[in-house]
Amino acid sequence: MPDALSPDPHHDADECAAGHDCPRTVDFDSSAPAAASRRSFLRATGLIGAGAGVASLGIGAAPAATAATASSSQDLYDVAAVSKNGGGSWRPDPDSPRFTVVVMPDTQYLFEEDRIHPAPLEASLRYVLDSCDEENIVFLAHLGDLTQNGLANEFAAVGGVFGLLDRKRAAYSVLAGNHDVGSSTTDQRGNTPYLETFGPKRFAGSPTYRGASPDGYNSYHVFRAGGRDWMVLALDWRLSDSGFAWAQSVLAAHPSLPVILTTHEIAGADDDGVASLSAYGQTLWDRLINTHDQIFLTLNGHYWPSGATTLTNKAGSDVHVHITNYQNRYYGGAAMIRTYTFDLDRDIIDVATFSPWIRELAEQRELNELAAQEMELTTSVDRFSVPIDFTQRFAGFAPTAPRPARPARDLLIRGTVAYWRFDGATGAPGSSLGDSVVIRDLTGAGNDLTKTTVPGSPASSLTWSADHHPDQPGHASLFFGGQGDPLRGAYLQTVAGAPLNADTFARGYTLEAFFKLRADWDSSQSAWTAILSRWGMSGEAGKSGGATDPQEPIATLSLSGDRELQWCVYPLNRTDSSTNWGHELPLGAWWHVAVVNDGRLTKMYVDGCEVVRNPSTPAVGLTTLDHSWLLGGYEYAGTINQVFNGWIGDVRIVNRALRPDQFMIA
After folding, report:
1. Which of 142, 66, 452, 480 is nearest to 302 (CA)?
2. Is 483 helix (H, G, I), strand (E, B) or coil?
């Protein structure tokens, strides 16, 4: 079990125990420099005027202004008007692999009795709406302590500003912190201004709200992003036994959803940003988080400084525990937000921390010295990345269904001149491919492959395998166990008289192959091995232009010593070679390569993505000497020179240029 909180971080308890360094309220009117006071801040965002007070909002039960609650004349603002102005529409892309969840911690010092300063919060919420399309913001989660004292007028004010999101039907959650409700109570406390303002009735029209506990203090929300559903489980400051039972029932009812758990207190951090569980956080861990593998990320406020840790749950999976809180900083944290940008393609979450309001002030040249320091936080605890292999992390509760094999007939599109795949194996995975086995060309054109073994090579040099690229049509491959010194291995070549041997592809071509290099691939043994190559030397074909090597093959798709793909060919219209280059590829992973010629120019694609080093010089067709094509073999100076070391899957050759959406991985 993780250790309970050891270092005592700063916190925001109502009544502090002896020895706790508790925050104090700051009067920003008296402390801000005269040149850029709070009044000038409010003016910069259009919030000074003779507008209605908080009682005009109609949300919650705001009392009439008294000497204890009224704002001074210079602090009057029209919260209702604030809530109606600004902000874009809410149209996140549910299928993009890149999306953003916004997190907002304690805003309590902005909503404290007669010290009501909504401008920073308004700016943050407008940022969420305005940036929804560009940043693909899908959700905002507030971490509690919306207010300082949990008073009706405080909630009327903060609730009014959140009306910005309500009117756009934006997806968000809130939860109660210890300053929003009685800190000694649980979710069974009954009615409060918090519940009146942010209870279930407020979220009835939300596109992501799915329900709340009977007491109304716990809720869950489901948003769609990256082509799948995600849950935000927003929990009260303190769960009762019934609260824990409700949370467990929600998780049980949605067993395949990855879950972000938000609550006000789970962990605190030391001055180096290393977080550890608090006593209550340990209870949450023991009773809920540890036993529910769906929960991969927890977010809380309450303590400062910010920090993070990674714990291991009962299933052996990582749980990322993050604390974020800026109420102790200038202007009560200025409604600072964190953006958690998920990138499913890169398997990472990029985190940034900044104040949209202070950014606005900078643009309007209304920035003072203290605010400037808070515009964006870039320390290692405020700006960082979290690597997560999402497929692997979620496999225990939501395994990804593998793409099914596709019948060969579906791949025989117009112009297909050769198609080889290995799922019709005559031997079990790991067994040797027999010397007499013929790999049939599935087009029926007769471009069949037969095995050739380098003398002295073991039978295991070429074996059947069930390994394959996840998007490969055929769920099988061949393993080539070649080495260069001394030369060992076995390869395949087209039979004599195969139509492919004579084809010049003068009108264009698309060549595709799936392959994987061994994790222990050694460039000293395997540099310049070929996936697909053609017998015949350039000198034999009469090619002598430029820096031509007369002994190299007339066409080869090879891998350099740096694992860069190279398509080096001698076109019909040139006396020298034309070369396309890829980039260094990681080992132990499956790749798809496509080389596409439109009758004039040639482009290489890796996993459907065009590479940069594609030549702009015309290259028409392919020179041929009517010799065989090689699969897994590379010829130099008229003899076999290298044999592939890794796996080769489906290979298809088409006599026209294909678009990426027509490749075998599509």
Report:
1. 142
2. strand
3-state helix/strand/coil string of 233-299? EECCCCCCHHHHHHHHHHHHHCCCCCEEEECCCCEEECCCCEEEECHHHHHHHHHHHCCCCCEEEEE
Question: At 513, which helix (H) or strand (E)?
Answer: strand 509-517
**CATH pick for 28-394 out of 3.40.50.1700, 3.40.50.720, 3.40.630.40, 3.60.21.10:** 3.60.21.10
Domain positions in the chain are 28-394, 408-662
Tokens of 597: 């010629």
Q: Are 479 and 618 in contact (CB under 8 A)?
A: no
Q: State the fold for domain 408-662.
A: Jelly Rolls (2.60.120)
pLDDT of residue 1: 42
What CA dihedral angle connects 631, 637, 639 and 644, to 10 degrees?
-40
Other Cβ atoms closer than 10 A to 76: 16
* Mean pLDDT in consecutive groups of 10 residues from the start of the chain, 666 residues: 45 41 30 32 31 28 31 35 56 96 96 95 96 96 97 97 96 98 96 98 95 98 97 98 98 98 97 96 98 98 96 98 94 94 97 94 86 89 96 95 95 98 90 96 98 95 97 98 94 98 98 97 95 97 88 97 97 96 96 98 98 97 98 96 97 98 97
Confirm if 113 and 68 have CB atoms less than 8 A apart: yes
Alpha-helix runs per DSSP H in 325-389: 356-363, 369-372
Q: Measuring CA to CA, how many Å separate 7 from each of 264, 306, 308, 380, 527?
A: 18, 13, 14, 19, 54
The pLDDT assigned to 373 comes to 87
DSSP assignment string, 285-336: IIIIITT-TTEEEEEE-SSBS-EEEEEE-TTS-EEEEEE---TTSGGGGTT-
Query: Using alpha carbons only, how large is the chain's radius of gyration in Å?
Result: 32
How far apart are the C-alpha atoms of 128 and 165, rounded to whole Å? 9
The DSSP result for 546-610, as a single string, is TT--TTSEEEEEEE-TT-EEEEEE--TT-SS-EEEEEEE--TT-EEEEEEEE-SS-EEEEETTEE
Q: What is the DSSP letter of 664?
A: T
Looking at the whole model, is its pTM more than 0.85? Answer: no
Instruction: Give the 3-state secondary structure of residue 494.
Output: strand
